[in-house]
Write a structure and sequence with these properties.
By secondary structure, the protein is mainly α.
Length: 805
Amino acid sequence: MRESIKTIQTNIKDNTYKKNKNENISSFNKKLDIILPGENDGYRVFYLNDQEDKHTYTINTNFKTGNIFSTFSEKKGKNVNKINEIKERKFLKLLLKIKNGLPIQRKNALKQISIKANEFGPNLIFHHVLPLIMDPTLDSHERHLMVKVIERILLKLKSLIRPYISKILLIILPLLIEEDNFARIEGREIIASLTKAVGVATMITALRPDIDNIDEYVRNTCARAFSVVAISVGIPVLLPFIVAVCKSKKSWHARHTGIKIVQQIAMLMGNSLVPYCKTFLGIIKHGLIDENIRIRTITALTVANLAEAVFPYGIRIFDNLIDLLTEGIKFPQKKLSSAFLKAVSCIIPLLNSSDSSNYCSVILSLILEKFSTPDIEIKKIMLKIILFFCNANLDKTDYFLKKIYYSFFSCFWTKNTIKNNSIFYFLKKATISFSEKIGKNYVMTKLLYMIKNENEVFKFRALETLYELLEKSSTNKISFLLVEEFLEIFLKLFSSGFYDVKGFFIKNLIILFVNYSSVSFKYINQIIYVTKKNLRNKNTLIRRASAQLVTGILYKLNNYQTKHYIYQITFILNENLNEEDPITLGIVIFGIIKALKISEMAFLGTSGRIIIPKLIPILRNKNAEVQKNAVILLGYLADKMGVFLSPKEWLRISFSLLDIFRSDFKNVRRNAVNTFGIIAKVIGPQDILFFLLNNLKVQERQCRISTAIAIAVICEICSPIIVLPFLIQEYIILDSNIQNGILKSLAFLFEFIGEQTKNLILILLPLLESAITNQDVVHRQIACNIIQVNFLVIACKYKRFKHEL
C-alpha cells in the first residue's frame, strides 16, 4: 500500500515537472524571440524536439513560367520560415533578376549564383532552371540567359551534376544545330564544360543510346556532341570509341553516326587535324564500299571535309582514294554521285601540277556528262572543278574550247542558276577564268547575246560578269568590232531609259569608252545628246546614271580636238545644279570640278558668276558628299576667278560657310577651312577674321575648334605678321572661349608654319606668359603645347646648324 502511494506521488511530481518544464521552455523561447534576431533576419532558430523534414525537389514538366515565381506572391505562413524555403526564395529572386532585370542586376545575379552554386545545390537549381528553359513562352534572349546560368554553375558543381546530365543534354543538344552561329558556339562551350565537369565516361554513357537512334535528327545532334567532347578532352582519348562505333556490325545507324562524328571533328578542327587525318581516313574508308547507300554518301562527304581541313597538306594520304572516288561519280543515284564528286573536287587542289594534268581529261569528261543535270549542288561542285582546272597551268586550251565551251553557257547560264546567289558567285568566277583560258572574245560574244536578251535577270547578271571581265582584261585582247557592238547596244539601252540598280551598266560603258577611245569617240555626240535628255528624266536612277557617265568620260576628252565637248558637258551639268536627289547632285558638282580642272578655267570667264549663286543654297544640304563637293568647288572658283566677284559677295559667302563648321563630317569641315583660307587670300584677312573671332564666342566646341583651325590657315596663307595683331588685341578681352580659341589657333599655326615660328617667339612671349599663369587649366595646357612645339622647332634647327658646321 505504501509502495503504491509512493509511485502515485512520484508520477504526479513527474507530470508537474514536465508541465512546468514545457511552460518554462516556451516562455523562455518567446523571450529569446523578442531579444534575438529571427528567421526573417536570415538566421536559423533551433527548437528542442524539433524534427525538420528534408526538402526534395522533382522536375515537373507540367508548368508555366508564372508558377515558378509564384513564391513571391504567396503570403508567408508558418512553413515559410524554414531554411530550405528561404534558400529557394533567395535563388528565385536571383533567377528573376537574370530573366527580367537590368544588365547590372543581371551581372550581379549571375555572379551570386556562380559563387553560391554549392550552397544552393544542384537539386534546387535544376528544379527551377530546366523547366524554365523548356517553357515555350520564353523568347530567344531569355532562353540564352537561362542557358548562361547553367554554363556558370557547371564547373562549380562538377560531379554533383551527374544525375542531371541527361536532362541538361536534352536542352543543350538542339543548340548545336541552330541557324544562329552564336547559339551553336554557346552549345559547344557548354558541352565542353560539361565534359570537363563529369568526365568522358559519363558523357559516353549519357549519349550512347542516341548513337543508333532511328531518327536522323537525334543522330546528327549526338554526332556533333561527340565531336565537341573529342576536341575538349583530346582526340586520342575518344579514338578507340570512335573506331568501335564506325566499325559496328549491329546497325548501320551506328556506323553512320560514327562517320558523322569524324566529319564534324574535321569541320571544327581545320588544319589541326593533320596529325590525325591518316588515322581517321583508315577508320572510315571502308564506308566507300559499304552496302548501304547512306553510309557511302556520308563517307564521301567526310572525305571531302577531311581534304578541306588539311588543305594544302596531305596529298599522300588521299593518293589511294582518287581512283575509287572518280569511279563513284558514275553512280546513277544523284546524292551519292554528288557526294563523290564533291570529294574529288576537294582532293584535286591538293595534287601537284603533273598529277592534276593526268586527271584533268578524265574528270572533265565525267562531269561533262552531268552538265545537263538540274541539281544546283552538283552544278556548284562542277563549277569549282572547272574553276580549278582553268586557274591551273595546264595545256588543255583545245580541250576546253572544243568540248566544254559549247555546252558551258547553255547548261550553266540558265534561269535557275543565275537566280541563285550562292551558285552565281562560282558561275561568275568560272566564266572569267574560262575567258582567260580560251580567249575573251569568245566569252564576251556569249555575254553580248545575254545582254540583248529580254529577260532582265540575264541582263543584270551578264553586265555584272562583263564588268569584272573588263576590269581584268588589257585593251589588246578584245577586238574592236566586238567593242563597237557593245557600244551600240549600250547606247540603245541607255536612250531607251534602261538602268541598273547596282550601276554595272554605266561602269561598263565608261570602261569601254575610256579604254577604246579610238573606237568610241565617234559616239560622243550621241552620248552628250542622250545624257542631256536623261538628266531631265523623272526617274532618279536614270538621272544618276547619266551624271555618272559624263563625269566618267571627262578626263578622256582632254585634248585639243575634243576640248569643246568639255564645254558642252560643263554647261549641261551647270543647268542641273538644282537637282533634288543628293547623290546625283554630288556627282553633278564633282563633274563640274573635274571639268574645270581639265579645262583650266579657260572657257569659263564671267560665267562663274552664274555658278556661285547656285552653290550658296546647296551649302545648306545635309548630305556629306554634296557639302564636300560644293565647298571644294567654291574654293576652286575663289582661287581661279576671285576677282570677278566683289569683296562683299565673298564676305557673304564666308558667312554662309560658318554653318558648315558645325558639320558632323571631318572632311567637310576640313575643306571648309581650306576654302576660308583661299577667300582670305583673295579679299584680305581683316573682314574674314572679324567673322571668325565672333564665331569663337559660341558654346559648341566642334565649331570653335574648326574656327581656330580656319584662323591658323589664314595666318599661314596671308602671313602671320598681318594676322597676329588682331589675335593679340582680341586676347585682351576676358572671355575664356575667345582666349581658348586664339591659343588653339596659335597652336595649329605653329604646327603649320614650322621653322618660321622662331621669328614670332618674342612677339608672343607676353601672351604665352599670361596664358601659362592663368587659372584655367586648359589655357595652361595649350600654352605648354605651344612652348613645346617652339622648343622642338628651335632644337631641330640648332641640330641641323651644328651638323652643317
